[in-house]
Amino acid sequence: MKQTSIEWLEQQLFNKRGNFNKQDIDKAKKMHEREMKKCWQDGFRFDSKYKNFKEYYQETFKKD
Fold first, then answer.
1. Torsion, CA 14, CA 17, CA 18, CA 23, rounded to 10
2. What is the pTM of this model?
């Protein structure tokens, strides 16, 4: 069974006892993006206001 990005980050934090770095956070973000893309592909309604997954993800999750 695959881990979710949250489960992976939780494991990293537990293993390192709070000593984590930016690479851990970046990896979790990439994992999360892949999970959301799979959700989109597996059944997101295509009559939505979004033209594609990237547009949906940028508007929904990116807070840059």
1. -70
2. 0.55
Query: Nearest CA to 30 among 55, 5, 52?
Result: 5
Give the residue numbers spanning the domain of 51: 5-61
How many structural domains are present in the chain?
A: 1
How many other C-beta atoms lie within 10 A of the C-beta of residue 58? 11
Phi, psi of 55 (to 5 degrees): -65, -45
Q: What is the largest CA-CA distance in the chain?
A: 45
For residue 16, give both structure tokens.
């390192």
Mean pLDDT by 10 residues, the chain (64 residues): 75 74 81 82 69 78 62
* Residue type at position 26: D
What is the structure's pLDDT at 27?
84
